[in-house]
């Protein structure tokens, strides 16, 4: 695992080809130091709430910058990040960033219209956004291969981060994100909205508490791995900075089946369905099994004979199967007393027999009531209080690691032993090399 990270800063970066910068004046604001665990943490100016009704005073709001305002960032899949966050009390969206001019201008227009002004800054290069001292937190909704670099650089610029799932492109990136967020004492929330769904929270707590008896097996529905990209070259459109879109990924010519939303099919940018919906459904698996701080100890790919599905084995004997490529199959937990099927994000749960289902009052009785207030609101509250969010970066790291381990087992086609404490394969150097990837300069991790 790399202990040092070599990432460029805004000060040393060359200027981008296109800049649309509407800079706002930088307000002075007070950051209060809070002691926690022997480390001094800095709370943003928005910790104070206005006593009067209506919107919080501008000087007391959490100022947000958005990086990636195309699909999930703006239009949304199960909700738009920009349109959701801007509605949260006590926030001020100050800047947006996207390498695609169409999305950048659309987002700026939306923010300006919302506030009835023209103050929202629009950037091509995210380094300009995160270097602003008047921004408290950033929301990252770029393709997966950018998540680690942007999150780490934002943490180093003293920004809190909401980063969409899947957390990373590799196992080593995920651990680096945890390490750097802790080093700079930042709040980092993973965009696993299921963690804030009261139905799913109650169901996971019921399963973890023994409602199904001893859970012996879990069946997960999600897509498969991504594949190498062999698409022919196409001319890059004039509205897109293609080189900056690629960033840390290997250079290749533009193709319209990569950008804007089809990138998850290709290995250089994503882990495919295994890390897309797998980040939801394997996350539910980890949560309900009480495995948020660990992971499987063995991964066995299908062999067309005795092993029909990719199989994870945990130290307690539980087996988890990637038994379906259909996300609608959700996650099914099979216990000695019954079974339950949970679906990520939507919150659908089904218990068999139905008598095992959590009662209505259990939807709000939780070991962490914060999980019932909404995923975006939870992040913002933790920015104010310096608390740990319900989908903390460590949880995102452990869950996406399960997905990555599955992809590696699929690729190698042989059983793998995994040490979840040391986060390394046991006796398999080839598999170990697949835990990380080289990044194109100047974006190396």
Distance between the termini: 10 Å
The structural class is alpha/beta
Task: Return the domain count.
Answer: 2
Count of beta strands: 17
CATH topology of the largest domain: Dihydrodipicolinate Reductase, domain 2
Percentage of residues in helical conformation: 25-40%
Biggest sheet character? 9 strands, mixed
Gyration radius from CA atoms, angstroms: 22 Å
The geometry reads as globular
Relevant CATH superfamily of the largest domain:
Dihydrodipicolinate Reductase, domain 2
Helix and strand pattern: EEEHHEHEHEHEHEHEHHEEEEEEHHEEH
Uncertain parts? 1-6, 8-53, 365-372
So what's the CATH class of the largest domain?
A: Alpha Beta
Instruction: Specify the CATH architecture of the largest domain.
Output: 2-Layer Sandwich
- Average pLDDT: 86
Spatial order of the strands in the main sheet?
15-14-13-9-12-11-10-16-17
Percent of residues in beta strands?
15-25%
Distinct helical segment count: 12
Features:
six-stranded parallel sheet; Rossmann fold; 445 residues; 17 strands; Dihydrodipicolinate Reductase, domain 2; alpha/beta; nine-stranded mixed sheet; disordered N terminus
Describe this structure in words.
With 445 residues, the protein is of the alpha/beta class. It folds into two domains: 32-194, Rossmann fold, CATH 3.40.50.720; 195-226 and 272-433, Dihydrodipicolinate Reductase, domain 2, CATH 3.30.360. 26% of the residues lie in helices and 18% in strands. The strands form three sheets. A nine-stranded mixed sheet has the order 15-14-13-9-12-11-10-16-17. It has a six-stranded parallel sheet with strand order 5-4-3-6-7-8, sandwiched between helices. The radius of gyration is 22 Å and the shape is globular. Residues 1-6, 8-53 and 365-372 have low confidence and may be disordered.
């Amino acid at each position: 695992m790399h202990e040092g990270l070599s990432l460029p800063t805004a000060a040393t970066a060359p200027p981008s080809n296109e800049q649309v910068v509407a800079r706002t004046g930088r307000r002075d604001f007070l950051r209060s130091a809070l002691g926690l665990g022997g480390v001094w943490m800095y709370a943003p100016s928005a910790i104070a709430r206005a006593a009067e009704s209506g919107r919080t005073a501008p000087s007391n709001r959490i100022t947000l910058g958005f990086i990636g305002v195309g699909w999930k960032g703006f239009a949304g899949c199960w909700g738009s990040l920009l349109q959701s966050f801007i509605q949260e009390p006590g926030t001020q969206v100050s800047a947006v960033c996207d390498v695609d001019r169409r999305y950048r201008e659309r987002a700026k227009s939306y923010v300006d219209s919302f506030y009835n002004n023209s103050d929202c800054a629009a950037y091509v290069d995210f380094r300009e956004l995160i270097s602003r001292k008047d921004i408290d937190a950033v929301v990252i909704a770029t393709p997966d291969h950018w998540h680690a670099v942007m999150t780490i650089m934002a943490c180093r610029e003293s920004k809190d981060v909401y980063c969409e799932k899947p957390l990373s492109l590799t196992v080593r990136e995920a651990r680096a994100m945890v390490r750097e967020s802790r080093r700079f004492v930042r709040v980092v929330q993973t965009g696993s909205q299921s963690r804030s769904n009261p139905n799913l929270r109650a169901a996971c707590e019921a399963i973890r508490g023994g409602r199904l008896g001893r859970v012996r097996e879990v069946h997960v529905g999600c897509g498969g791995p991504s594949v190498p990209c062999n698409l022919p070259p196409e001319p890059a459109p004039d509205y897109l900075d293609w080189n900056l879109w690629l960033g840390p990924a290997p250079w290749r010519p533009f193709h319209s089946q990569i950008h804007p939303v089809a990138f998850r099919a290709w290995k250089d940018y994503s882990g495919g369905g295994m890390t897309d919906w797998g980040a939801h459904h394997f996350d539910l698996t980890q949560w309900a099994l009480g495995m948020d701080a660990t992971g499987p100890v063995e991964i066995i790919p299908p062999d067309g004979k005795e092993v029909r599905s990719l199989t994870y084995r945990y130290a307690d004997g539980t087996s988890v199967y990637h038994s379906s490529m259909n996300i609608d199959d959700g996650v099914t937990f099979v216990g000695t007393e019954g079974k339950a099927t949970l679906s990520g994000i939507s919150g659908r749960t089904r218990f068999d027999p139905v008598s095992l289902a959590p009662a209505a009052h259990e939807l709000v009785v939780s070991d962490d009531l914060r999980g019932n207030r909404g995923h975006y609101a939870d992040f913002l509250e933790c920015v104010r209080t310096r608390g740990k969010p319900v989908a903390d970066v460590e949880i995102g790291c452990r869950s996406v690691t399960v997905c990555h381990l599955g992809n590696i087992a699929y690729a190698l086609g042989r059983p793998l032993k995994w040490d979840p404490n040391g986060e390394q394969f046991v006796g398999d150097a080839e598999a170990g090399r697949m835990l990380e990837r080289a990044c194109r300069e100047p974006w190396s991790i």
